[in-house]
């Protein structure tokens, strides 16, 4: 049937259009009403802070999120978050809103099972989601706040056990709430106890402040919830200028007056090491493609020689044995007498020779007090038999992991962690202040702790994540060197909230900066792993392409050293300090470096002269 329209004198389309125009003009001509409608619209604003993730995760709290440069929907950054186990990788932000008002929440997402929602609305909490978004897809939902609601939490998350999702350009449009005024600038900033690498600061409380931001030489370096904090990662005998600002939901105050402090010249207990040391592992109990190298044939450039490896009779026995390479496997192996004589000669030349415990195949789990005591006695026997200077802890694989209830690196409760700490303290006390204690963990056990610690708040994470942190922290006053293995590693998030991968200077710079700056464990700013002294840190690198994944050329090694010790040649990663006292380099291994024509050693000698 053909459609017809009524065209009577008052119902015709031209008449209705004219009537609408007249009515609209009449309404807008009434006093006060012409300005009312546009004013109401102007009150609406986008209330999300950093909705495009252009300033990292600023404003966001994420359980497993990072900022990436690709893919992005607009600008130069977007959020990437990866669910794992029982963690749905939620990123959230709490926003100040107006009560009894309407809001539109929107954002662009991609990936499988991506959710966008709001909670704490005071009415009905809302969410929207997509099961599959191979390219950027806009999600949007609306809600109305309750009569007493002033704060709403917006969030995005994925789904348990699925792949990574991405989010960009998130917005919450509606009337702005009254966030009040930023607090006043703090007063009374004072420098307290000063060490070679730290300065303690305190200041007067500020009314209305919910937190404080600390600035070092004009750069924001950390936050605090109270009225005191210790700034670490500093260089000995160096003057620094500090300021503090107060923060609340409305923003940040002006900075306080400046206070200066100069770090002391101390560099920790004397161990007889040179200012810049070269550390290498010597294959003493096995042979591989690199060939056997006698102790006497190790060049004088090597300041610390780690004999690899002492291994347990069984995983949980604690009984460590050091078996020298047999003649059938190493035809050029020296006799025990020559081996011991070569060690004494190295020591007479100022070198340190240690027994390294563990390695790839030497899983050590001190699950009981008996295993702990056996560990102490058996390691002591090796040290005494060969007259060694100390111990290197090279626990890998499944040697260290955290119980689900063990969530505080400062007060560990897991038996294998507690017993190892006790054993190492006992050995240190037995041999005295010149006992050399070093550690060579993998990045998974240390720097990964910035994102993950143990099984996590909801379980499901790898219990080994960050498991070395309580050991390092408990022994930090006794620790001679920490040289994390910056090789055979997956991508690791740095303090810039970007993932860094092996193979270039950037990885070594980012991983080392974390050790010298300190970092929140599992993203908890109230639970910060403090920085180590620069003289306690060396960078672990493979000696050659044959030695392990993550080899870098001498030029890239020099870039890393330039950036960390001089703050030059840094590339894209901005360090949080300059550490000319960085101790040096560690490599796997002396044998592989010899196989490669001593390239690693020669470059170290050339750099530090």
Automatic annotation (TrEMBL):
Signal peptide: 1-42
Major enzyme class: hydrolase
Domain Fibronectin type-III: 185-266
GO MF terms held by the record: chitin binding; endochitinase activity
One Pfam family here: Glyco_hydro_18
EC annotation from Swiss-Prot or TrEMBL: 3.2.1.14
Signal listed as a keyword: yes
A Gene Ontology BP annotation from the UniProt entry: polysaccharide catabolic process
Entries under SMART domains matching the protein: FN3, Glyco_18
Gene3D superfamilies: Galactose-binding domain-like, Glycosidases, Immunoglobulins
Ranges of residues in domain GH18: 276-609
InterPro entries membership: CenC_carb-bd (IPR003305), Chitinase_II/V-like_cat (IPR011583), FN3_dom (IPR003961), FN3_sf (IPR036116), Galactose-bd-like_sf (IPR008979), GH (IPR017853), Glyco_hydro18_cat (IPR001223), Glyco_hydro_18_chit_AS (IPR001579)
UniProt keywords, alphabetically: Carbohydrate metabolism, Glycosidase, Hydrolase, Polysaccharide degradation, Signal
Homology family: Belongs to the glycosyl hydrolase 18 family. Chitinase class II subfamily.
Protein's recorded name: chitinase
